[in-house]
Design goal:
233 residues; alpha/beta; 6 strands; 41% helix
């Protein structure tokens, strides 16, 4: 596919809430698991496209701390997709050369997934191309609470925005410039509440499985036209 024309001004870091898989499937008379499978494949395509056009950082919301409340069969489907993605990432690591990092509390994850995550992160550390952050069992309030607990014994006068940011899961990663939520929902749903303080927000009606290059490029053009003042004039 020919790369669409892009604006000169591109964000350094894009964050995406991968939303609408289940509703995409329901609209087609398919089980929700089918929507998650198609959404997973679309994630690969969008991640590859972001790498190809020079986006430095991509952070995606894959599984929230609240997603455990979903039906057990749906949770198991998501876990199977995570296993498949991690196994394929390890096999294709040298070809893709993507640095992968996971954000969130991984302790409730099955042991085999935790082992795959550790292996994936270890192997990808040597790559300096696009940096991919996958938020897994992630909730921003949980992240902030964990950061606060880690600071309890530190002298209060040493607490700054930077020292606090250094205790978050995203330590060392620049804040997102742009956050996209497909599916028509207009809320952040406990995603990167600290990091998105000055991000440009885009809420798109398209369900995630149908959110392709064309939709992303449209958002990038809209982003390029915004004036980011960070509270100034």
């Amino acid at each position: 596919m020919k790369t669409p024309e892009l604006p000169e001004k591109l964000p350094r870091h894009i964050a995406i809430i991968l939303d609408g898989n289940g509703r995409w499937a329901k609209a087609r008379g398919l089980p929700r698991s089918a929507g998650h499978a198609v959404g997973s494949e679309n994630f690969r395509k969008i991640a590859t496209f972001c790498k190809d056009i020079g986006i430095e950082y991509l952070t995606v919301y894959a599984f929230s701390t609240e997603n455990w409340k979903r039906p057990p069969e749906e949770v198991e489907t998501l876990l199977k997709l995570f296993r498949k993605y991690l196994q394929e990432s390890i096999r294709k690591m040298e070809k893709n050369r993507v640095r992968i990092r996971f954000m969130g509390d991984l302790s409730p994850m099955p042991d085999d997934i935790k082992e795959l995550i550790a292996r994936t992160q270890e192997l990808s550390e040597r790559y300096d191309g696009v940096s991919l952050q996958i938020c897994l069992n992630y909730g921003s309030r949980d992240e902030i609470l964990r950061a606060c607990r880690s600071l309890l014994n530190d002298p209060p006068e040493q607490l700054t925005e930077q020292t606090f940011s250094d205790r978050l899961d995203s330590a060392g990663i620049p804040d997102p410039d742009l956050c996209i939520r497909p599916s028509g929902e207009c809320r952040l749903s406990n995603f990167l509440l600290w990091q998105l303080a000055y991000a440009e927000l885009f809420f798109v009606d398209t369900f995630w499985p149908d959110f392709g290059q064309k939709e992303l490029v449209k958002v990038l053009w809209d982003y390029a036209e915004r004036n980011r003042r960070y509270g100034g004039l």
